[in-house]
Design goal:
The complex is a heterodimer of chains A (424) and B (336).
Chain A: E1 2-12, E2 17-26, E3 29-32, E4 44-47, E5 52-55, E6 57-62, H1 75-84, E7 87-92, H2 103-115, E8 121-126, H3 139-145, E9 149-151, H4 160-172, E10 177-179, H5 184-187, E11 192-193, H6 196-201, E12 205-206, H7 208-225, E13 229-231, H8 237-248, E14 253-258, H9 285-296, E15 302-304, H10 332-341, H11 347-354, H12 356-362, E16 377-387, E17 406-416, E18 419-423
Parallel strand pairs in A: 1-4, 1-5, 6-7, 7-8, 8-9, 10-13, 11-12, 13-14, 14-15
Antiparallel strand pairs in A: 1-2, 2-3, 5-16, 16-17, 17-18
Helix pairs in contact in A: 2-3, 4-7, 7-8, 8-9
Chain B: H1 24-37, E1 55-60, H2 66-77, E2 81-86, H3 98-106, E3 112-117, H4 122-129, E4 135-141, H5 147-160, E5 168-172, H6 179-190, E6 195-199, E7 215-217, H7 220-223, E8 229-232, H8 238-241, H9 248-255, H10 259-262, E9 270-272, H11 285-288, H12 295-316
Parallel strand pairs in B: 1-2, 1-3, 3-4, 5-6, 5-8, 6-7, 8-9
Helix pairs in contact in B: 1-5, 1-12, 2-12, 5-6, 5-12
Classes of the chains: A alpha/beta (424), B alpha/beta (336).
Chain lengths: 424, 336
């Protein structure tokens, strides 16, 4: 199978390419992004005129539900959402049912992914057995079965000694730890940022310190143990400062931010609207600005969707009892483009944060249009307006605060390993 | 969702969920209406026929004696039929969701819900979900709001000290967990009080308490200086077990209101408490029962204020449609 993507603006940050041209794909791999290969007879030509052609997006934190929660969403429904959003690689958080803490469950994930026609779902293995935070998981077996990293999802590790040992063990097998910093006790079952809004509406609140203290502890342990750590879904200013300092002193750590944290703050939260119930909570304007700064200075190198689809029931109730999370795969690209439109980052940076940089975090040979690489490609129209409504939405979870809004930028074609998995 | 959810198209009070976002005129209208009902309880026949034929459900997901009783009396005096539901011991303990409980009651052709719930935002949620002809009165939701308590306190204050512009009010105790405090602060600021001061240890204050429009003191003796109205809050016993306070006795020593400490306030200061009071924990019996205490007056005023709010809300609600209560979730695939 040979595919030619014609006359698009090719943006490939890893190879420092930004020019009009064509991409040539054969047998699932990129063949060339410049000269036409000799005797190239495409089976399929995709016209990308006035569109952008870039590496397929790599999402560092996703929940697809299914396994235990199929009434919320399934692999089938969510990979279609991912494909339509230009996302070609997904990292699945381990808090499925059953938890991803054995090789058998990793195999099950792979099987479900194959069945859904979207093989590039990488499981993040549990750091501790059943994510209970007390006993180490079999990280080597998990790695050998195909886990891309380990993590404890949003569950607490019982104490720092266990975290230290888990990190030492992960380091021994060169396993990446994906860590969402949150001190369970300081979080105190909160559902909103500890600030003006939680004060006004009497909502149980989560201070920034719940994140920054857990982050500081993990940074110290990263230094002590030599474990590779990627910090996920940062939400506040002081976290950005801490990561920046750690990197300055040579610590090999990286970080991402969920796309909605770059756009929404506690002030956007209309009173008790559960669509805005998300963890970590939406924080202040200053936090948002610092997170954006973090992207520019590369303290934060990736943007993730932190996709968490829910059924309607999960969001119907008094705010504190509703389930946190936003269905966010399909708004990932338009919200990244909004950052570009607001001149917070350049288009090249934005694409890098969704492709080349997460690939580097995961040590994957993807996230770039390098000849020989698997052909994961996203073609999108940056000017196309579309409304977030049931007609356009693919995810089974409609829990998004952007529902009803008109956003700019839409994927027209997605290729995964040279196979067209989405075409508008 | 906005706080305008409380008002109908003409700007009249349809639901009473929070003081937040309501105008001074509207709060004054509530107080004036309550004034007109204040005499009813003293008549031989303690009833007016305003809500005859209306069904009001007291929906209490949390236990309460005083609030529920005064709501019930208020409804009865307006000639409504009242049903008391103590959900704390009923449906939801069998796993029924809040929404299902509401849908079931709607199907019984009710006209008004008076709701108390342990979670902030519960009354907003019910008002948003319920059929258009049903009014919702918040009788306390989590740590968010208790607007009728605030209004009955404003009513009591206005009877004794009508000039809000010269009023300095101190609220003492567990502000962090108090829906009463939040509503009192908003009501006092809306009515133009000169100063609202909160007095508590840091563990019992929200992190951004100043943003509510208050001054802060951590010392009762200093904090009571120049105060016209002393509002005490109930201290829940569980604050000790959750490490917010060391002991009842130490709390009483620092923040308990005694005759001695009350002397720092203005000589004609009044002492209020939303009840139920913990004698010897936040307030000394001599003060609670003393000449400056208006605690029992607050209770009797509760009836008139709740009558006023119920009557106003019922007048602002549209007539019920053919289907009575049942309706579907708005939006297409969902408003989520």
């Amino acid at each position: 199978m040979k595919i030619q993507i014609n006359n698009g603006r090719i943006i490939d940050p890893a190879n420092n390419i930004d020019r009009i041209g064509s991409v040539y794909i054969a047998d699932g791999n990129i063949v060339s992004v410049s000269d036409e290969p000799v005797d190239f007879k495409p089976d399929n030509i995709i016209n990308a005129e006035n569109q952008i052609v870039c590496p397929g997006f790599i999402d560092l934190s996703t929940r697809l539900r299914d396994m235990g929660h199929s009434r919320k969403a399934t692999f089938y429904s969510e990979v279609r959402a991912a494909a339509s959003a230009g996302v070609t690689t997904l990292c699945l958080q381990p808090d499925t049912v059953p938890v991803i803490d054995t090789a058998a469950v990793v195999e099950l994930v792979k099987e479900l992914a194959e069945k859904a026609g979207y093989p590039q779902i990488y499981a993040i293995g549990a750091l501790t057995q059943k994510l209970e935070g007390t006993e180490l998981s079999s990280m080597l077996s998990l790695k050998q079965a195909g886990c891309i990293a380990v993590g404890n999802a949003n569950r607490p590790v019982k104490n720092l000694l266990i975290l230290r040992r888990a990190m030492e063990y992960a380091a021994s097998h060169d396993v990446l730890l994906m860590f969402r910093p949150n001190d369970f006790w300081l979080g105190n079952n909160g559902c909103a940022h500890e600030g003006v809004i939680s004060t006004r509406y009497g909502l149980p609140s989560i201070p920034e310190a719940a994140e920054t203290i857990a982050l500081a502890q993990c940074l110290e342990l990263a230094e002590l143990t030599g474990c590779r750590v990627h910090f996920g879904q940062l939400s506040c200013k002081r976290s950005v400062i801490k990561i920046h300092q750690a990197k300055k002193y040579g610590l090999k750590v990286s970080a991402d931010v969920a796309i909605h944290q770059l756009h929404l703050t506690e002030n956007d939260m209309t009173p008790f609207d559960s669509a805005y119930h998300v963890l970590p909570p939406l924080r202040t304007e200053a936090d948002k600005q610092y997170l954006r700064q973090g992207l520019i200075g590369r303290t934060i190198n990736s943007i993730c969707s932190d996709h968490q689809p829910h059924d309607l029931d999960a969001k119907l109730g008094a705010f504190p009892e509703t389930e946190p999370g936003i269905s966010s795969l399909e708004t990932l690209l338009p919200l990244m483009l909004k950052l570009v439109a607001e001149q917070a980052i350049t288009l090249k940076q934005g694409i890098a944060c969704l492709s080349a940089n997460p690939a580097r975090v995961l040590r994957l040979n993807s996230g770039a249009l390098t000849p020989g690489f698997s052909a994961d490609v996203c073609v999108f129209d940056p000017e196309l307006d579309w409304q977030v409504n049931s007609e356009n939405w693919k995810s089974q979870g409609v829990n998004t605060p952007f529902w009803g809004q008109t956003l700019k930028g839409r994927v027209t074609c997605t290729l995964q390993a040279g196979k067209i998995i989405y075409r508008a | 969702m906005s706080d305008n959810l409380q008002l109908n198209a003409e700007g009249k009070l349809k639901h009473f969920l929070t003081i937040d976002g309501l105008s001074r005129e509207l709060l004054t209208e509530i107080l004036d209406t309550a004034e007109s009902f204040a005499g009813v309880s003293e008549h031989q026949v303690k009833k007016v026929p305003l809500l005859r034929g209306k069904t009001i459900v007291n929906l209490f997901f949390e236990n309460s004696t005083r609030t529920r009783t005064t709501f019930e009396l208020a409804a009865t005096r307006l000639s409504a039929d009242v049903i008391n539901m103590n959900i704390a011991t009923s449906a939801t303990s069998k796993g029924e969701s809040l929404l299902d409980t509401i849908r079931n009651l709607e199907s019984m052709f009710v006209d008004m819900f008076v709701v108390r719930h342990a979670l902030s935002g519960a009354a907003h949620f019910i008002a948003q979900q319920t059929a258009p002809h049903i009014s919702v009165i918040n009788a306390g939701d989590g740590q968010h709001a208790h607007p009728t308590q605030a209004m009955l306190d404003m009513f009591t204050i206005r009877q004794l000290k009508p000039d809000f512009a010269n009023l300095r009010v101190a609220i003492i105790g567990d502000i962090l967990h108090s829906r009463v405090a939040r509503s009192e602060i908003q009501a006092l600021n809306t009515l133009g009080a000169a100063e609202v001061r909160v007095i508590a240890p840091k563990t019992l204050l929200p992190a951004h308490v100043q943003s509510l429009g208050v001054t802060v003191s951590h010392n009762l003796t200093e904090g009571l200086k120049d105060i016209d109205v002393v509002m005490m809050l109930r201290l829940q016993k569980e604050r000790m077990s959750s490490a917010l306070l060391p002991s009842e006795s130490e709390y009483f020593k620092c923040f308990g209101l005694t005759e001695e400490k009350l002397k720092v306030a203005k000589p004609d200061a009044i002492v209020m408490h939303p009840g139920p009071i913990n004698r010897g924990v936040e307030i000394e019996s001599k003060v609670a029962d003393g000449s400056q205490s208006v605690i029992l007056k607050q209770v009797s005023n509760g009836i008139a204020v709740r009558m006023a709010v119920m009557a106003m809300a019922m007048q602002a609600a549209p007539a019920p449609g053919r289907s009575g209560g049942i309706h579907t979730i708005p939006g297409d695939k969902g408003v989520a």
